[in-house]
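ligand=S-adenosylmethionine
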Amino acid sequence: MKISEAVKYGKQILGNDYSLDVEVLLAFAAKISREQIYTQDDADLLDDELFKQLIDERRKGKPVAYLIGKKEFYGIDFFVDERCLVPRPETEMIVDEVIEYFNEKNIEEGGFKEGLIFDVGTGSGAIGFSLAKMLPDCRVFCFDIGDGVAAVANKNLDELQLENASVVVSDLLAAADDDIIPEVIVANLPYIGLEKYNFVDDDVKAYEPHLALFGGFDGLDLYRKLFGQILERDYPGRGLKLIMGEFGFAQLEEIVNLIEGAFGSSSYKIIPDLSGIDRFFKILIK
Ligand SMILES: C[S@@+](CC[C@H](N)C(=O)[O-])C[C@H]1O[C@@H](n2cnc3c(N)ncnc32)[C@H](O)[C@@H]1O
C-alpha cells in the first residue's frame, strides 16, 4: 500500500474526525515523521499488516498512546503501556504551578530553586519527572502502589537519566522515610467514583488500569487517606509548604470539605483547567 492509500484507508475506517490518529499510527507503522506522510505519499508503506492492525485496534477504542507506546507530556516523550494511565495534557498545569512556586521562592530567598518534592500516584512519572527535569536542584520522590506501574516509571527514569528523581513502591506515603520531609506534594490520584461521580468514557474504562481510575464510592478515598497520612506524619509542622492535586468533575464541594477539614488553618485555591472546569486544588500550608 502506498502512503497516500494508507491515509485514505485509515480515514475510511476511523472517519475524518480521526485524521490525526491516522497520521500518528501511519507515521509509527512506516517509521517516518508525520510531515513525511505528505512529502513521501507515493512511497510504499512496507508493513501493511501492522498498519491495518493498528487501525483496527484504534477502531475498537484502544488509545493511540498504548498503540505506539508513548505519550508526550510537558515536551517529554514518556513510555506508556496498559500498566499506567496515559498522562493527560491538562495535568501539565500541576507542573506549571509547582515551577511557579519555586520561581517565586527563588525571588524571595535568592539562590537555587532547591527543595524536596513528592509525586504521589506517579504512574508513568509524568508529573514527577517533568518537575525533576525542569527543577534540577530539586529532589523528587515518585510513589506508586504497583510493581507493574513502578516498572513503567523506572523505564522512563532510565530513559530520561534523571539523577534527582527516584521511584518508590508504596501505598501512598506508607513507605516514605520518616526523616525525609517534603516541601511540596503533588498528586493526581484516581478520582473516579464507583457509585458517585462516575463520569468516564467506556474506552477509558475498557483500556486504562482501574487502579489508576477509581477511588472508592465517591472517588475521593485516596485523597482522604493521603491527607490523613500527611497529618499523621505532621508534615505541615515540619516544613511542608504546598500540596497540589487534581480532582474530577462535580467533586468541588466534597474536595473543599476535605481540604478544610484536614488543613483548616491553611489557605487554598481552586484552579480550573483550560476548559474552565474546576480541576486542581492548591493548598498553601501555614
Ligand atoms: C490517575 S493516575 C495518575 C498517574 C500520573 N500521576 C499522571 O498524572 O499521569 C493515578 C495513579 O495512582 C496510583 N495509585 C492508585 N492507588 C494508589 C495507592 N494506594 N498508592 C499509591 N499509588 C496509587 C495508580 O497506580 C496510578 O498510577
